[in-house]
Amino acid sequence: MSKLYDKYLYLKKTEDTSEKTLYLFKSGIFFIFLGDDAKIASKLLSLKITYLTEEIIKCGFPVNSLEKYTNLLKVTPYKIKIIDNTNNTTYTISNYNTDKEVKNILNTILSINTNSLSVKEAYEFIENLKCIAQQIMKGESYNGENTE
């Protein structure tokens, strides 16, 4: 977990100080804020502060609550950047959601048994994917259930 805090300190040291940015780290099945960001997020979102170590504070929420908390954060003056350590990537909230939705579509495509589809079913599948892609491009949410 100290690697997360080291990354947090590095990001804070190198960030553009003209922007108020909070860094939200994906850690397993949770998203967490660290250090001063945890103090701010705790006040904004009514999250309980806990300790990562004796000196480092944190607060967070489960991954499945991301939409709830990001909607609350949209009305604050803070810019949120999501740090996903599983693939070492930094996202904005909308880019994180888009990436997740694209991965859902790709998994759906990979799960199709093309040998069992009729021409009509294949056409309907492609049309459905096109509609989902249009939703994502418009910034609308896709929940992964539309392709069945």
Short description:
The chain is α+β, with helices and mostly antiparallel strands. 47% of the residues lie in helices and 20% in strands.
Features of the shown structure:
single chain; 148 residues; alpha+beta; MutS, DNA mismatch repair protein, domain I; 2 domains; 6-stranded mixed beta sheet; 5 helices; 47% helix; elongated; disordered C terminus
Can you characterise this structure?
This protein has 148 residues and is an alpha+beta fold. It has 2 domains: 2-86, MutS, DNA mismatch repair protein, domain I, CATH 3.40.1170; 97-137. It is 47% helix and 20% strand. It has 5 helices and 6 strands; from the N terminus they run αββαββαββαα. It has helices at residues 2-14, 35-45, 66-73, 93-111, 119-137; strands at residues 21-27, 30-34, 50-51, 57-62, 79-84, 89-92. Strands 3-4-2-1-5-6 form a 6-stranded mixed beta sheet. Strand 5 and strand 6 form a beta hairpin. Helix 4 (93-111) runs antiparallel to helix 5. Mean pLDDT is 83; it is low at 144-148.
Q: Strand-residue fraction?
A: 15-25%
Strand-pairing-aware structural class: alpha+beta
- CATH H-level name of the largest domain... which superfamily? DNA repair protein MutS, domain I
Number of helical segments? Answer: 5
* Percentage of residues in helical conformation: 40-55%
Write the layout of secondary structure elements.
Blueprint: H1 2-14, E1 21-27, E2 30-34, H2 35-45, E3 50-51, E4 57-62, H3 66-73, E5 79-84, E6 89-92, H4 93-111, H5 119-137
Parallel strand pairs: 1-5
Antiparallel strand pairs: 1-2, 2-4, 3-4, 5-6
